[in-house]
Amino acid sequence: MQFDIITVFPQFFEGPFSFGVLRRALDAGIVRVDIHNLRDFTTDRHQTVDDRPFGGGEGMVLKPEPIFRAVEPLGIAEKPERDTSRERVVLLSAQGKPFTQALAREMATLERVVFLCGRYEGVDERVNELLADSELSIGDYVISGGELAAAVIVDAVSRLLPGVLGNQDSARYESFAAEETIDLDAAEMPPRSTCDSGGLLDYPHYTRPPEFRGVAVPPVLSSGNHEEIRRWRRRQSLTKTLRNRPELLQSAALSKTLSIEDRALLEELQQEGSGSV
User: Which residues are paired to 51 by β-bridges?
Assistant: First the structure.
């Protein structure tokens, strides 16, 4: 998969893409990331990429001309003719649609994504109207530029590509993972100790030592009973989601992805005090 990142700070990406899973994906040729310096596409000796906003106000606004010049050599189709099931241009800004795991899965099916990293007070809106297919934000907060957001999205999407993770099921059994395609009712499930998050938060994890500073690993995890472990993990996933992200449970209820077992466990948790373990 090809990622192109257009930025005024190309050196920023020397760190995020040099370690871990993403570094291995780049070395293996599963992912390719090309960084393009926006200042290389200016025409004045000062390499100006921004200007004052019309109407007044604080800050500077990224100009449209250098951004269009940076994208045109990439061979991306014009916006009206672009096949967005294969390639997309994404503007990263605080005004964008929230980036989610569902969007990461959708983007992992593409062949190419071009990221436009916003900076300063913002980007000339004509870039959004005439060039970008979508505008994305990584959260309800403001950061200094789109570079951090681009690194986050490249990582989130890349780890979903076949061959990137050592065990592809690692992307299945974690927070926000897609629902299972089989019936989630315990009676219908094959015996195993893991469980999909079904769009909820992941369950807690433990490793050695068995006891640390007076806190022991829950005995069920050492019991060898896969069904009991699976049920405990699902209960903890529901507990953590109820405590930290209750809106995810509301979405799951509306989309009818909660199993009979899930609903029963939730009733138990709510009776016990809405999230106490």
Answer: 61
Contact between residue 230 and residue 269 where contact means Cβ atoms under 8 Å apart: no
* Burial 169-197, CB ≥16 within 10 A → b, else e: eebebebbbebeeeebebeebeeebebbb
Q: CATH number for the 172-272 domain, one of 1.10.390.10, 3.40.50.150, 3.40.50.300, 1.10.1270.20?
A: 1.10.1270.20
Nearest to 5 by CA among 47, 32, 26, 33: 33
pTM of the model: 0.87
Architecture of the structural domain at 2-168:
3-Layer(aba) Sandwich (3.40)
DSSP 99: P
Backbone angles phi, psi at 113, to 5 degrees: -135, 130
Percent helix, strand, coil in the chain (nearest 5)? 40, 15, 45
User: Rounded to 5 degrees, what are φ and ψ at 257?
Assistant: -100, -5
Name the token pair of 12.
């920023």
Give the CA distances from residue 17 to residues 32, 71, 173, in Å, rounded to whole numbers and listed in that order.
11, 22, 24
Percentage of the chain exceeding pLDDT 70: 88
The per-type count for the chain, helices as H runs and strands as E runs, is 8, 10
The arithmetic mean of pLDDT across residues 134-138, rounded, is 98
Q: What are phi and psi of 134, to 5 degrees?
A: -155, 160
3-state secondary structure of 60: coil
Region 118-125: mean pLDDT is 94
Across the beta sheet with 122-123, the strand order is: 50-51, 61-62, 122-123
